[in-house]
UniProtKB/TrEMBL annotation:
Catalytic activity: adenylyl-molybdopterin + molybdate = Mo-molybdopterin + AMP + H(+)
Entries under Gene3D superfamilies matching the protein: MoaB/Mog-like domain (3.40.980.10), MoeA, C-terminal, domain IV (2.40.340.10), Molybdopterin biosynthesis moea protein, domain 2 (3.90.105.10), Molybdopterin biosynthesis moea protein, domain 3 (2.170.190.11)
Record InterPro entries: MoaB/Mog-like_dom_sf, MoaB/Mog_dom, MoCF_biosynth_CS, MoeA-like, MoeA_C_domain_IV_sf, MoeA_linker/N, MoeA_linker/N_sf
GO cellular component: cytosol
Source species: Helicobacter cetorum (strain ATCC BAA-540 / CCUG 52418 / MIT 99-5656)
Pathway assignment: Cofactor biosynthesis; molybdopterin biosynthesis
GO terms under biological process: Mo-molybdopterin cofactor biosynthetic process
Name used for this protein in its record: Molybdopterin molybdenumtransferase
NCBIfam families: molyb_syn
Cofactor: Mg(2+)
Function (record text): Catalyzes the insertion of molybdate into adenylated molybdopterin with the concomitant release of AMP.
């Protein structure tokens, strides 16, 4: 096991861990929003399947184009509605009125839209002053949207609202997706009380990490499973951790990661799991650990986060998202933007630091102002990255930043 490693080393350890991926399940397409698709979806045929009219128009052959300004094209008494079950054939010297979405009749490659058409004695002419149509004007050609065997949805991507519409168009009633990972969330600390719980203890701390982490897990496509708050007791903590690991695919703990007399999370992990790293050279979130729990042939990941809300949040973004991506067999990015510091920063700690800030777009340029809390100005949440070893940052200097809204 490695200790006090760099962020890059920690991420590499997670990448190389043999985390057991989750299996597939088949669900109704309409319930697949934001689920990770398990197989590529290929186009069964061209779309449109045939050439179709994109306007209400008269269909004819471009070989007869001159007739539109001389003697006119003869018109059939019937027309060509959308969804017509009969294959229409247009003879030389004739035109057939076709409606938006209707298949182009045989022998036709041109359309004269109704706005440009004039009918005299059941013959079709182009209006004076209007240019003659060119072949395939206002025609949606077969395969214009996609061709047979084109990859329309890719294995590992999340299904969007557009994807639901596409599956409906393809008549894909059922779709294979990756099973949602069940992520147990355990928070420990004698000082913690639950939301809605009354107490006479003014020093009690309302538990927020567990609810924040549950929401983050579910925003990524997992199922967050909350367990009751645990007091600082090694035996109880170990027992609850083992139950959570048996019942779920992953475990996230918060609290008990320091070196105090009442911090037992590391000890419990070492007795239950194979530790891969503890302590990373980052701020906040130095006392973070990653471990593996072996259950028969399955390997389940454990992420132990500090109890500080800022540190817990950053630990999830840096490590929890990567682990969940392994389980879901997908990827997510951490978009880096450039931001202008609105005030100088002087620090003593040389660690890579993720300092919380408010990010505001002004005249097309991102500006970062320091914010002490993750719960202020939610729409502007973000962090600036203070490089390892650099202690001074001047006002108006440009730094790397991440918006939390881009990370979920």
């Amino acid at each position: 096991m490695k200790a006090l490693i760099s962020l890059e080393e920690a991420l590499e350890i997670i990448e190389l861990a043999c985390i057991t991926p989750l299996g597939k399940e088949k669900i109704v397409f309409s319930e697949a929003l934001h689920r990770v698709i398990a197989t590529d979806i290929l186009a069964p045929c061209n779309d449109p399947k045939y050439n179709v009219s994109s306007m209400d128009a008269y269909a004819f052959s471009s070989k007869d184009i001159e007739l539109l300004i001389t003697e006119g094209l003869k018109l059939y008494p019937s027309d060509n509605p959308v969804g017509n079950l009969h294959e229409m054939v247009v003879e030389k010297g004739y035109a057939l009125k076709s409606f938006t979405g209707a298949n182009m009749p045989q022998n036709c490659d041109s359309l004269l839209i109704v706005e440009h058409a004039e009918v005299k004695n059941n013959r079709l002419f182009v209006k004076k002053g209007v240019a003659l149509p060119k072949p395939n004007d206002f025609v949606r050609l077969s395969g214009q949207n996609y061709h047979q065997n084109d990859k329309l949805l890719t294995k590992g991507q999340k299904i969007s609202a557009y994807g639901i519409g596409l599956l409906a168009q393809l008549n894909q009633v059922f779709v294979e997706v990756i099973r949602k990972p069940r992520v147990a969330i355990l928070s420990t600390g004698n000082e913690l009380i639950e939301v809605g719980q009354n107490t006479q203890n003014e020093n009690a701390t309302r538990s927020t990490n567990n609810h924040l982490l549950k929401a983050l897990v579910e925003s990524m496509g997992g199922v967050g499973v909350l367990y009751e708050l645990i007091n600082d007791d090694l035996h109880t903590l170990k027992e609850k951790m083992q139950v959570a690991l048996l019942e779920n695919d992953m475990l996230i703990t918060t609290g008990g990661m320091s070196m105090g007399d009442y911090d037992f999370t590391q000890t419990a992990l070492e007795e239950l799991c194979e530790m891969r790293f503890k302590k990373v050279r980052i701020k906040p979130g130095k006392p973070v650990a990653f471990a593996l729990y072996y259950q028969h042939e399955r390997i389940k990941p454990v992420l132990a986060l500090p109890g500080n809300p800022n540190a817990s949040l950053m630990g999830f973004y840096l490590f929890g998202r990567v682990i969940l991506n392994h389980l879901l067999q997908t990827t997510t990015t951490s978009p880096i933007i450039q931001a202008v510091l609105e005030s100088p920063i002087s620090r003593k700690d040389t660690r890579l630091e993720f300092r919380f800030c408010a990010l505001k777009l002004k005249n097309g340029v991102w500006h970062a102002s320091l914010e002490p809390s993750i719960y202020k100005n939610p729409s502007e949440h973000g962090v600036i990255l203070l490089d390892e070893g650099v202690l001074e940052f001047e006002a108006q200097s440009v730094v790397k930043a991440m918006r939390f809204m881009d990370l979920t």
